[in-house]
Amino acid sequence: MTPIHEPLSEEAASRLVQVAALSKSPFVIRGGGTRSLHGLPDGADVLSARGLNGIVAYNPAEMTMTARAGTPLEVVEAALAEKRQMLAFEPNDLRGVLGTSGIPTIGGVFATNASGPRRLVAGAARDSLLGVRFVNGRGEVVKAGGRVMKNVTGLDLVKLLAGSHGSLAFLTEVTFRLLPVPETAVTVIISDLNDAEAAAAMATAMSMPVEVSGAAHLPESVRSRFAGGALPQGAVTALRLEGLAASVAVRSEKLIAAMTRFGAVSHLEAEGTRRLWREIRDGAPYADGTPRPLWRVSVAPVAGQQLVAALRLETGVDAFYDWQGGLVWLRMEADPEAALLRRYIKAVGGGHATLLRARPEVLAAMQAFQPQAETITALQARVKASFDPAGLFISPMVG
Amino acid sequence: MDQIGFLESRQAVLSRRREIVADLLDLLPRGCLVHEPRELVPFETDAFVSYRRLPLAVALPETTQQVAAVMKYCHRYGVPVVPRGAGTSLSGGAIPQEDAVVIGLSKMSRILEVDFANRAAVVQAGVTNLAISEAVSADGYFYAPDPSSQLACTIGGNIGMNSGGAHCLKYGVTTNNLLGVKLVLIDGTIVELGGKALDAGGLDLLGVVCGGEGQLGIVTEATVRLVAKPEGARPVLFGFDSSEEAGACVADVIGAGIIPVAIEFMDKPAIEICEAFAHAGYPMDVEALLIVEVEGSEAEMEAMLASIIEIAGRHGVKVVKESQSATEAALIWKGRKSAFGATGRIADYICMDGTVPLGQLPAVLRGTAEIVEKYGLRVANVFHAGDGNMHPLILFNANDPEDAARAEAAGNEILKLCVDVGGCLTGEHGVGIEKRDLMRHQYGDADLAQQMAVRAAFDPQWLLNPSKVFPLEGRPA
């Protein structure tokens, strides 16, 4: 059994890391463990944030919350729901697609920059994160950022920590901004567009002053696996509008009028909208209990369908699109085809792909994260060393 | 007056001045190096005009490769480099020093690509902020961050300072609207961070370069996010009997879950100064004014305004004035955006930039008034209230050194107050030299040491903009 350290305070975490630094005993940092992409390397203990639990401060009038890193996401979201507030970036839940158990934590959400459909207009987790406290690889307790919306005092270490996948430091506390829950939401659906037509329709929708807050395309191959099979026949291109009821009504009318030239238009009311976008957020069609390789690919919005079209000519793939096409959930039939995928990502203008899932022996043999240019790899290594000079925190993010 | 210090000039550099100039002349095309002392004067300061230093030379490269060549040379010979956009920094971020080569991006001012389908523009770093919005306006888009100096300031400078503006409340600041950069590291290496994809792989280096105040590298190109222009936008004026009531109203509007595009605050001195300059139609019989901008469809604006007016009523609002035309709306914003310039016509001023939690606005406004009064000075408050980003303008007479010292002392006290109530020293102007020596008030030793270690990961010899941001004492050897 891998030893698990679960410090109950920031001071305890600091002491633990200081001791480990002396003996150069490495750690793998974990929150709830629900987003782990890799097994544990030999000889590393787990440093878990689960003992750091609880909301420290919630100020609805200032739309900010501070919570210890190990606080369950559901606890945070329940507290926010009481005041009709929410996390703007719609953190996803990867337990379905990864087959992991456990409880997602707020620290894990920020450490992996886990962002859902509204990322397209409201920014990623990193854009909502205002401040952090962490223990670096020297065992020092460090704070960065703060609890105000605008803050350019010194280097923005907050952004570096967001999405660092436990490679730089052990997060102990996070402060983040919130948004009011929109009064209502609808989804405008255009039926039976092919991927290229859908890209054009989504680009048109995003160019309109109607504030689309979600733009996804669900090809026919996945359509039936959403909304309990209740979506209209054929591929579904889904556009979400949120806000005050009076405004949503006016905007959806405008959007529908503009979309009819692309195809048959229907719509989902608030409840159906919530379910659909939660499923899109979590990659629901691929929560299929298989280890078939699953990628999350981030490219320029119109490049998403170009990438998939090119791959289809060479290998068996299944895909659907979020973020106006810029986020591709891509499932391979057999082999992850990493080299092929990365070559085509480059060909369509660049981006990156993260391998979420594969058979353990395949995963063990490859890099889940996109390899970077040599110059950037060197820079990342220096940045990591500035937090963690002894390399105590093992993460596939920075080699 | 306690002058803000600079690092001591490197004698080894100063003594080689002639050779360095000759070498740089070789590296750059004709007309791309300024080195005659008389011609260096325009580069001796920025908008933080109390401090002036002549640089060794000013390179004005035309390409990323030329920027890289100059950086590689400076790195090799240990010559400090100070990046410069339009020189509009309010915190001294672009002020050079005698042993430094300024790299100015003014010749790299082209918009390279506009890509509406991906809602992105690729621009050179010397493009002005406003030029981006102007280039895409006819197609129904804009670039969201809008610092008051947007007519002059460059996107490269905006990235250096992570600039904000009046409309950030809804659209975020530079870091939230920046997709990628081409960055030249101090040793001349050119790297590309991010691109048109929403998320980049690896560590978020782009996130720390943005707001790095030119200490991590020089940005030569940027990919920025374009946003579809709203259907309509309408600024509305709300006049109050006291600053405290106006401040409390702001907190209540946000607390009610209403997020207008902008909430700007002006107190009586600021109203008088701006109205005299812009004739914007501001009410003159109130103590404080909020400019609240709502946008969207007619229905949405109406609904939002009705809620705001209801909340303002609870705070005894005296005047509510909606703009009736595009011209009136433009005038309202012209008045606000000319606040600094208009103030400069009647007195010298220093502008603070602390941000405070919204609930603390009334208390900090009171505290600011008390501090300024204690020093026998006057203050005009004009700021982005919706995100708590305060801009007290402390008026003084620059010809009187004692008056100037009092203004600086009062400013420092106000910033410490902002930090003490849970805020920060600077919301959008940057630390520069101005707030450098206050950094220890906000950060502990370990906090600063970590930031400096990251800085050193990019620039181990501390050659890039070396006198800025971090207190001169206590730097790593």
UniProtKB/TrEMBL annotation, chain A:
The keyword Nucleotide-binding does not apply. The lineage of its organism: Bacteria, Pseudomonadati, Pseudomonadota, Alphaproteobacteria, Hyphomicrobiales. It comes from the Bacteria. This is FAD-binding protein. Gene3D superfamilies: 3.30.465.10. Keywords: FAD, Flavoprotein. Residues 1-181 form the FAD-binding PCMH-type domain. InterPro entries: FAD-bd_PCMH, FAD-bd_PCMH-like_sf, FAD-bd_PCMH_sub2, FAD-linked_Oxase-like_C, Oxid_FAD_bind_N.
From TrEMBL, chain B:
Pfam families: FAD-oxidase_C, FAD_binding_4. It comes from the Bacteria. Its cofactor is FAD. Keywords: FAD, Flavoprotein, Oxidoreductase. Residues 51-229 form the FAD-binding PCMH-type domain. PANTHER family: GLYCOLATE OXIDASE SUBUNIT GLCD (PTHR42934:SF1). This is FAD-binding protein. It comes from Shinella curvata.
